Amino acid sequence: MPPVLYLLAGFVLLFFSGDWLVKSSVQLARHFKVSTLVIGITVVAFGTSAPELLVSLRAVFDGAADISVGNVVGSNIANIALVLGMVAIVYPVKVIKKTVWLDWIVMMLATFGLILASSNFIISSFEGILFIVLLGVYIIWAVFNSRKQGKSKEKIEKPSLSLVKTVLLFLLAAAGLYYGAEWLVIGAKDIATRLGVSERVIGISVVAVGTSIPELATSLIAAIKKESDISIGNIIGSNIFNIWAVLGVTSTIKPINVSPSIVNYDYWWMVGIAILLFLSILPLSKGLVSRWKGGIFLSIYILYIYLLFV
Question: What is the pTM of this model?
Answer without folding.
Answer: 0.84
